[in-house]
From TrEMBL:
Highest taxon of source: Eukaryota
Residue ranges annotated for the BTB domain, each copy included: 12-83
UniProt organism field: Sparassis crispa
Gene3D superfamilies: Potassium Channel Kv1.1, Chain A
Pfam family, one: BTB
Protein name: BTB domain-containing protein
Length: 317
């Protein structure tokens, strides 16, 4: 057994062993926060019980990094993670997993609230954050973390996280969805077969919606680019239409309809389209995002009665 560098107290009276790493900690501190640990520690021990350094020990199946993260919060307080500074997704995920397992409800709920700042069920929050490339959540998150987010939502029955998390899974390369995402601790996060099926089927629906958006935004058939004072925009929009149709290859480009704020809204501006045509592109993109957002649970074959009931944004283009 290797002693953990951060959590090995000489006056500790219980050793938690996670995959060969020992954490010598204080039984009272751990039991005070966790119902599961409290019950575990109160199980009568036999006189012939094996000990390490005169301490009782418990073998755990958790990863050392997850356990270290949990102990850091239990010893140093929740301010360690939730003090207004961004935290790593992996730390929040570890807290959700272990707080759920060891029945630390307040910590689990606070960690889930942190997840919800990114995997939101509010269109207004999405627009300010993901759509415009401005991460306003409390976490540093990568696109591939969506797989773990789906699994955490399933673990804790937090369905409000699922639509956005599954949508972001749709943007991942297929080999990552099928083979899973390897975490830093070596564990592999994979979607269940049901959720994998949801993503694969949703991709087709998202692709159709994205192609419709492209046509409405850039094709004269759906717009008024043919007006005399917009004549200069016609060839420009034709180029953008051709570009976006050709760019719809692979899952990210095909399904990125909810990510059309910011840089894609600015396409017509970069090419010096007139004010009216630029406003049309922005309006079409916004309407497409809003429409898909409203249908997202259905696209993902989820039943969330409260989805879309919170105040919506008006197009601020």
């Amino acid at each position: 057994m290797q002693q953990d560098k951060d959590f090995w107290f000489d006056d500790g009276n219980i050793i938690l062993i996670a995959r060969g790493i020992g954490f010598r900690v204080h039984q009272g501190i751990i039991a005070r926060h966790s119902t599961a640990f409290h019950d575990l520690f109160t199980v009568p021990q036999s006189q012939n019980e094996e000990k390490i350094l005169d301490c009782s020990f418990v073998q755990l199946s958790d990863s050392p990094s997850d356990l270290r993260c949990l102990l850091r919060v239990l010893y140093d307080g929740k301010k360690y993670l939730f003090a207004g500074t961004k935290v790593e997704f992996s730390d929040v995920a570890a807290l959700v997993r272990l707080a759920q397992k060891y029945q630390i409800e307040d910590l689990r709920d606070e960690a889930l609230d942190c997840l919800k700042t990114y995997y939101t069920d509010e269109f207004a929050v999405w627009e300010v954050g993901m759509s415009r490339r401005c991460n306003i959540s409390n976490m540093n998150v990568r696109m591939r973390d969506a797989v773990a987010a789906v699994n955490l939502a399933r673990l804790t029955d937090t369905i409000s996280i699922l639509p956005v998390a599954l949508y972001l899974c749709c943007l991942l390369p297929s080999h990552l969805l099928l083979r899973g995402i390897r975490r830093e601790d070596g564990e592999v996060e994979k979607l269940s077969m049901d959720d994998l099926e949801r993503c694969l089927e949703a991709r087709m629906e998202l692709l159709k919606a994205n192609l419709t958006r492209i046509s409405k935004a850039y094709s004269p058939v759906y717009s008024d680019y043919q007006r005399a004072d917009c004549y200069g925009c016609v060839s420009m929009m034709d180029q953008l239409l051709a570009f976006h149709n050709q760019a719809v290859t692979g899952p990210f480009q095909s399904c990125r309809i909810l990510l059309t704020g910011g840089e894609h809204d600015d396409d017509s501006v970069k090419l010096h389209a007139c004010t009216r045509c630029t406003a049309n592109v922005k309006a079409v993109n916004f309407t497409a995002r809003q429409e898909i957002w409203g249908r997202l649970p259905n696209i993902m074959r989820l039943k969330i009665p409260t989805w879309g009931t919170k105040p919506q944004l008006n197009n601020s283009a």
